[in-house]
Amino acid sequence: MTVPHDRSAPRFTALTVLSLSAFIAIHLGSLSVFWLGVTSRDVALCVGLYVLRMFGITAGYHRYFAHRSYKTSRWFQFVLAWIGSMSIQKGVLWWAGLHRVHHRWSDTPRDLHSPTQRGILYAHVGWIVSPEHDETDLALIPDFAKYPELVWLNTYHWVPALVMALGCYALDGARGVVWGAGVSTVLLWHGTFTINSLSHVWGSRRYETTDTSRNNLLLALITLGEGWHNNHHHYMNSANQGFFWWEIDVSYYVLRALSLVGVVRDLRKPPAHVLTPRLAEVASQKLATVRAAAETKLAEAREAAESKLAEAREAVVEAKTAAETKLAEAREAAAEVKAVAEGKLAEAREAVVEAKTAAETKLAEARETLEQAVDEAAAPAPTTGT
Ligand SMILES: [Zn+2]
Ligand SMILES: [Zn+2]
User: Fold this and answer.
1) Exposed (0-12), middle (13-18) or buried (19+): which is 276, by Cβ within 10 Å?
2) DSSP string of 29-43?
3) Residue 159 CA to ligand 2 centre (angstroms)
4) pTM, to two decimals
5) Average pLDDT per run of 10 along the chain, which is 386 residues long?
6) Which of 120, 140, 121 is nearest to 5 (CA)?
7) How far away, in angstroms, is 229 Cα from ligand 2 center?
């Protein structure tokens, strides 16, 4: 099996150049309606071929060949492939095979047309005109590659469009070609391409699929039901893509009508457990997510509070220790001051005692000296000369 999205070596073949030129020429040629004007027949041709070929793409290329969502006869499958080929979106086996790749690798680097991988313009139109994917890999679609008429139609996929253009010419001349094969085709292309571009960007998501698919009423109306793309990615094998009555799905209504007259059969529908329990599951998943987030926040808050508390406790212990240290230091300093004061007091007392003793000694000496002096004075004076 080749890798259909291999980007290494895009080869511009003559066919690539031809198809790219035709793509641009049909766009430019459609502008001639401004000179040709419009009649009710032109509008009928444009709208009729749009609706018919959109059905060929959605109910044929997509729901039947890519997804086998219903069964039909060999002749009607060829009719579906023929109508799909009239839309000028390359061969049926090429398209359906690559679409299977899209589902297998949705919104991953291996997806051919993921707007999240290579931008919305590439998802819209780049992938289909790019030479990267020109080859048809029949290994991707062996269940239909076994029909030689389909392989032939896949190779000569431009034949139905040519027949259509000739039919338009036969009906209404050049105006018929411009309106039927030109304007109608341009509208059809961009209508179909929205499924690969906008349906992965714009709309709501009912199911938590692994890709970015979305449901969108407007795109569902433009594409006859393909806009319920999130439903489709959730359960791709269903013949209906609108899962509920209010999800308008014109292709499915036509398939239902065809099944009533026996042209198609065994339309696959999503089983009940795929629809509603999934809704409940999504709701409970959301609830679980919210609960988990709340629990995480709570745990974080608790942890933060506990850590603050521990810090506060530590700070209190530190403050207490510091206060005790200061107190001890103060006590020590006071004791020192007291000892010094006591020393000084003792010294002072000693000095007082010494001074007192010295004074007493001096006093005693003075008294003695005085007494001596008194005694000497009182003694009779010695007679001189006798
Ligand atoms: Zn998709
Ligand atoms: Zn699909």
Assistant:
1) exposed
2) HHTTHHHH---HHHH
3) 25
4) 0.68
5) 46 75 85 83 93 96 96 97 94 93 76 69 70 80 96 95 94 90 93 85 85 91 94 93 94 97 95 70 76 92 94 94 93 93 92 92 93 88 57
6) 140
7) 8
